[in-house]
Amino acid sequence: MVALHAKLPPTPRLLPPAPPSHATPTTAASAAVNARIAELPDVVLDCKRLDALMKSGRLADALDLFDRMPRKNVVAWTSAISGCTRNGRPEDAAAMFAGMLESGVTPNDFACNAALAACAAAGALGLGEQVHSLAVRAGFAGDAWIGTCLIELYARCGSLRAAEEVFRRMESPDVVGYTSLVSALCRDGEFAQAVEVLCQMMRQGLQPNEHTVTSILAACPRGLGEQIHGYMVKAMGLQSVYASSALIDLYSRNGDSDMAKLVFQKLDSKNVVSWCSMMQLCVRDGRLEDALRVFSEMISEGVEPNEFAFSIALGACGSVGLGRQIHCSAIKRGLMTDIRVSNALLSMYGRSGLADELEAVLDKIDNPDLVSWTAAISANFQNGFAEKAVALLSNMHSQGFTPNDYAFSSGLSSCADLALLDQGRQFHCLALKLGCDSKICTGNALVNMYSKCGQIESARLAFDVMNLHDVTSWNSLIHGFAQHGDANMALEVFSEMCSSGFKPDDSTFLGVLVGCNHAGLVKEGEIFFRLMIDQYGIMPTPSHYACMIDMLGRNGRFDEALGMIEKMPFEPDALIWKTLLASCKLYRNLDMGKLAADKLMELSERDSASYVLMSNIYAMHGEWQDAGKLRQRMDEVGVKKEAGESWIEVKNEVHAFVARDTSHPDSASIYQMLAELVDVMQDTDLDVHVQVL
User: Fold this and answer.
1) Residues of the chain whose pLDDT is less than 50?
2) Residue 427 CB coordination number (10 Å)
3) Does the CA dihedral 111-116-121-125 come out positive or negative?
4) Which segments of 377-474 are extended strands (E)?
5) Of 190, 259, 258, 243, whose CA–CA distance to 219 is shortest?
6) Model pLDDT for residues 31-77, shown as the tens digit of each residue
7) Hey, how many other C-beta atoms are within 10 angstroms of the C-beta on 433?
8) Sign of the C-alpha dihedral, residues 231, 234, 240, 246?
9) Can you give the pLDDT at residue 27?
10) Considering only CA atoms, which of 571, 573, 623 is closest in space to residue 594?
11) Which residues are CB-neighbours of 354 under 8 A, at least 6 positions away?
12) Shortest CA distance to 526 belongs to which of 548, 557, 495, 555?
């Protein structure tokens, strides 16, 4: 926060000082006037140039000109302060106001307005209070515009009561003053009081303008919105673009697309705000193609799309080709420096699975914000780049950003997929420190992470400390116990879930069936399978059927498993036949195995697992010729069994490897250590054997 250490300079003398004794009064006065006239054109010209540069967004050039100005009057200082705020540098604007006072320039009402606007934008309440005090001492407190700026300052900084007090002390608040208070009350959720102020304004004989109406419409319910709509028809003729855009948004929020379209169509002049409102309406209704059509129509009508229009269009874009076209259009219009457009691009490329393009966009953002980091982390996780997601979350925190619930969720889920227990614990500690561990998204991810990393007790603890649970929370815990083979705990959690008033979904029953399968509880599995259909009306998915078929197959009940496959309401996929084939290998069922293998190869001829499983079944029965033919067919089709990959985390770095891998830079020393371990194991085995003998 910038402090105003400079004192208010004394009131300047309006008359020139007394002339020296050797000069006549006329001569001295004429010299002073001539000097002022000589410097006036330069100061005025510099001020005009400064203002033009600020308004055109050339902040660096404007500040360079300001620094080179030999004399800076109050107009120059005010232009610089306003320009810095307008160009997103309110902290610098506030510091510049303090510099103006220290330089001895007396602020006028415009300078105080500019300083208050800077403080409001920067959220600098303490500094704004000092400017307020200065304005009172300078005699500007009764100025209506100063009062309006003060209302905005206190409202933006969360001191609504102070804003109301400023309003009460205003001698004759005008429409702008009333509008500022109405907007502040609406933003703070005090809508009833905002309506009361609006009524007070109209009793004073002041008619609401388009900004007043817009503020109310942004927060009001449908009934009052329709009354304001009627007032607008009578008083404004529905040709206020901003107020009409707020009307479109009102009807859109309340699901009345037809009225929103009617308001839009009756507008004689449509600006980018009204077009954006229609695009947002289409997005709310799930009509993404219509949103893109509106975007195209806007451009055809000659309306230049802004950063909001591009961000909405990119959010609605489901085609990579069209998304790239919109990206190019944003580059041509110079909008890539806007963080909203960049964030929308990150989300678009993330949805499309284009990780390289996403990374390129992220690298070009000068100052990524919380949304940028979160979008990149989530996109990498969802597209299978878990290592990158973990690295981004760590980098985000090192850059000074505080991860939110969604960033933690994606990061922890990535740790779960990679079984990075130590890294997941570090993220857990950070979430605990920030108070995010008890939130639903982070809590669910913690349960999932600890379950997949083999720490089921920690998963239960993470579940218990959550303030609120949703269906996903219960499902994560049920799946965790099921994967650990603890069917009894999985069923107990299912009972707790139902007792807590939550309705199980298809994922819940899948977890229960997996638990029953792992524990060999076939009868219980059949009961829950029927319960899912009969009581909860949930149609089983291929995953549910695969679990039941695996359960029956592992119990040797192949006829029932095949009967279930034949009665399925959809065609069995590769997962179903592969599950049955695996059970056939377990029981050496050659005939059923041949059937499953043939069906599987029809569906997926290049799936190596089916060839390997069937080959093993042939080998178990001594059918070496058939096993050889199957291997030969694999070679003809070009199917190769992918090597199983393992990985290990050392000092927060993941090292992946396969059998007989030599790609690691330290492979020589790794194999040397492996040989030494083999020797030790052999020696130990010999000692044990001797002791047993």
Assistant:
1) 1-39, 686-693
2) 27
3) positive
4) none
5) 190
6) 443 444 344 557 788 888 888 988 888 888 888 898 888 888 999 99
7) 10
8) positive
9) 42
10) 623
11) 320
12) 548
